[in-house]
Amino acid sequence: MWISGDDHSHDQPGAPLGRVSTISEVVPMDGANLATSAATPNVGNLSVTKSSRVHIGPKFVSVTQNLQNTEVVKDMPFPVYVWYIVKNSSRAEKLSCLVALLVLITCVTLIVFFAVQATNNPEDYIDVAPHEWNISRQMWLAQNFTSSSTTERFDPVRLVIIQHTVSPECSRFVLCAAELRNMQSWFIKYYNYDIPYNFIIGNDGRVYEGRGWGIEGAHTFTYNRCSLGIGFIGDYREELTVHSRVTELQIKRAKMLLEEGVKRGFLDTDYSVLGAKDLNGSASPGSNLYNAIRQWEHYDHINKWRNKTCEKMYGFVPIS
Fold first, then answer.
1. CA dihedral of residues 40, 44, 45, 47 (deg, nearest 10)
2. DSSP readout, the chain?
3. How far apart are the C-alpha atoms of 203 and 127, rounded to whole Å?
4. Residue of 92, 129, 141, 170 with fewest CB within 10 Å of its CB?
5. Residues 45-56, buried b or exposed e (16+ Cβ, 10 A)?
6. Low-confidence residues of the chain, pLDDT below 70?
7. How far is 205 from 232, CA to CA, in rounded Å?
8. Which GO BP annotation is one of this protein's (predicted)?
9. C-alpha separations of 278 from 139, 207, 267, 285, 298 in Å
10. 59 touches 77 (CB < 8 A)
11. Cα–Cα dist 205/257, whole Å
């Protein structure tokens, strides 16, 4: 039994077994009385009669004779200790702990999620396109934008103009589609017209529909009404430290597009291919791409269309 008091009369015959100055109440426990105080007493100063289960904080103390003579302390198992704490906590304390636990779990989950996302490389994704090479506006999720001007008066057109977009490269379908959406949004916002090219060749080698067949483009001043504009994604100026390089796949797919245009009647069988720089002061399509198209069968080395209007190209008599 723990008896309140601050003297040490237990050293004298007939006196109570022990006294601790901080004890405020006496509680029986396992055949012995356990005193609970506001401040935990020093175990070495306690005097307790025989008891097999004296609970002091997270410890169990077995007393055979006197706590001053024999002391055996063993750790309480952590789950048992946690359960003991929860069991003896107030409802408010339990709710606070639950909220704190939920916040901790949420934070850990978010950290793991963003860590995994940060390590993902776009190149790791499987490139699944809706078509092997011919991507329509619907496939790359283009905004609806109606162009009223057409090339109908000059169909089938006789001139194909090659340009470069001077925009970031894209090696996958999802990336090229995103780049086209960004490009289209920019032209709509600042110029209030659709993406300027009739077709765009991605760095993935696919052909992306811009304005499409039979629609007047906005790529080369004075020639838009009677030409087909094709833009290659990237910057092909070799004089730059970092520049795009045209690939064999891009060339192959561009020629496939032109063959389709002839079959569908939008492109003249004897069409001419020129770079934008052949018709105006532009650096487009860049030296790397320009050198490549000069090897094409339909490239116009004579440049018979320079400084000619669409009407003159077709021999139309001006309307007076």
1. 100
2. --EE-SS-GGGSTTS-S-EETTEEEEEEETTEEEEEESSPPPGGG----SEEEEEETTEEEEESS-TTT--EEEEPPHHHHHHHHHHTS-HHHHHHHHHHHHHHHHHHHHHHHHHHHHH--GGGS----SSSSEE-TTTTTPPP-----BSGGGPSEEEEEEEE--S----SHHHHHHHHHHHHHHHHHHHSS--S-SEEE-TTS-EEESS-TTB--SSSTTTGGGEEEEEESS---TTSSS-----HHHHHHHHHHHHHHHHTTSEEEEEEEEEGGGTSS--TT-HHHHHHHTTSTTB-SS-TTTT--HHHHHTPPPP-
3. 13
4. 92
5. ebbbeebeebbb
6. 1-76, 118-126, 317-320
7. 10
8. peptidoglycan catabolic process
9. 33, 23, 20, 10, 14
10. no
11. 12
Owner of token pair 């760095």: 203
pLDDT of residue 184: 97
Burial of 71 (0-12, 13-18, 19+ CB in 10 A): middle
Residue type, 217: G
In this prediction, residue 15 carries a pLDDT of: 45
